[in-house]
Specification:
- By secondary structure, the chain is of the alpha+beta class.
- It contains twelve helices and 18 strands.
- It starts with a helix and ends in a 6-residue tail after the last helix.
Length: 427
């Protein structure tokens, strides 16, 4: 798998030199190399997609990391594999446990260079081993459907190509870089959050390779996110002989669910999605336990305080009811990502790189969140969906535009190459 980095360069450069444009692109040769190298990754992306990497399938996540490390080995970076604590989860009977996750992978090169750049992407997908969506297929010559092709295995190949181009620059020693591939982004990055915060403290800016919008646009501001679990404990009783002695946990869970749902629309930018509920068993027993799980999205930091207050009020009232106990787990894991001055500067540099490439990049806010939120919260300017162009992520319709692999790698490479040779600057 390492041949893609070295075997095509001379031939592609020769073609580029033979057809020099009137106004030469200073990066024509490394960008042409990306075109050739991307062609060699067509089968590799299919193989990566076919390797299941569900967040709770650590063996599959680690196997995905193995393939990518083999691919990145010719870059000559130092490599660390980092074991992370498991994911704290609430089971259907309210029990708490740590679910195992895969390892994080960190690569670093030239940590003493004057400009330090963070590049990141996640190894995991939302499709576990039992999900029916397991295999990639070509829709046509330029569109691939498959688990993780856009989110985010295609993006990891974009990152690899951009770094491969940088490492061919005679000015590469001016830039040091750090790559983090984490195994738990799709479940909130709770295990890898500390690694992201550490990276934010030693880099000047960050590039994250989440998928671009289907029209090629990029994200600006992002909403924050939190995941919450409620365990409702009531009291079992016979449904016919003495139902009055029971306390129906499902009924209280339904009341809480409705109250939470009604918070939607009460504060601009805050949404609550009731995502999972479980409870009960035999129909002649008053159910003594129920579990309710929900996600919250917020636009500004004050939204979190407001939601916490509303939730505290609901749970206080519920716990005051005779015979019931409601326990709460989870919380906010990603603050809202606002566009800082540094992020705006990075967006402007990328927009300029896009114009040089014939791309009119548009930045617009999104309700989705990612590791870019974590980096921004730790003070690191970043743009976080520099991966392939794709859509219908988190569904079995997920797709990517194949030609965007080289296109988006060239976009990030232009930025890195320009910063390396001094034609662009990071103030």
């Amino acid at each position: 798998m390492g041949d893609w980095l070295s075997g095509r360069y001379t031939r592609v450069m020769a073609i580029s030199a033979a057809s020099s444009p009137v106004a030469p692109d200073p990066f024509a040769d490394p960008l042409a190399w990306i075109d050739g190298a991307a062609t060699g990754l067509r089968d590799e992306l299919v193989a990566l997609s076919n390797q299941n990497a569900g967040s709770f399938h650590p063996a599959g996540v680690d196997a995905t990391a193995d393939r990518l490390l083999a691919l990145l080995a010719p870059l000559g970076a130092t490599i660390e594999r980092i074991a992370l604590s498991g994911y704290a989860s609430t089971g259907d009977r309210g029990e708490r446990s740590l679910r195992p996750i895969g390892q994080a992978v960190r690569l670093r090169k030239r940590p003493d260079a004057p400009l330090q750049v963070f590049l990141g992407g996640h190894l995991d997908t939302v499709f576990g081993p039992s999900h029916p969506f397991q295999t990639a297929r070509w829709i046509d010559d330029d569109h691939l459907n498959g688990p993780g092709v856009a989110d985010l295995k295609g993006g990891l190949l974009v990152m690899a190509l951009a770094l491969g181009a940088l490492e061919r620059s005679p000015h590469r020693d001016r830039i040091g870089w750090e790559v983090l591939m984490n195994p738990d982004e799709e479940i909130g990055s709770t295990g890898s959050a500390a690694l992201l915060a550490e990276a934010a403290g030693r880099n000047h800016f960050g590039l994250i390779f989440e998928p671009a919008y289907p029209d090629g646009g990029l994200a600006s501001a992002r909403k924050g996110s939190g995941n919450f679990d409620l365990v409702i404990e009531g009291r079992a009783a016979h449904a016919g002989r003495n139902p009055e002695d029971g306390r129906n946990a499902i009924a209280l869970a339904a009341e809480l669910a409705l109250a939470l749902h009604r918070l939607n629309g009460q504060r601009d930018g805050v949404t609550i999605n009731l995502g999972y509920s479980h409870g009960g068993g035999a129909l002649n027993i008053v159910p003594e336990r129920a579990v309710l799980k929900f996600n919250v999205r917020t636009s500004i930091a004050d939204d979190q305080c407001w939601l916490e207050e509303q939730l505290d009020l609901l749970l206080t009232r519920a716990n005051d009811r005779d015979g019931f106990t409601v326990s709460r787990f989870g919380g906010f894991t990603r603050p809202p990502k606002l566009v800082s001055a540094g992020t705006a500067r990075l967006q402007a540099l990328l927009a300029d790189c896009g114009r040089a490439q014939g791309l009119a990049l548009q930045f617009r806010p999104t309700g989705g969140c990612c590791d870019g939120n974590n980096l921004a919260a730790a003070g690191l300017a970043n743009v976080d969906n520099l991966g392939v162009v794709g859509g219908d992520i988190h569904s079995d319709r997920e797709w990517m535009r194949w030609s965007s692999l080289a296109e988006r790698a060239q976009l990030s490479a232009r930025l890195l190459l320009g910063l390396a040779d001094g034609s662009r600057s990071w103030g």
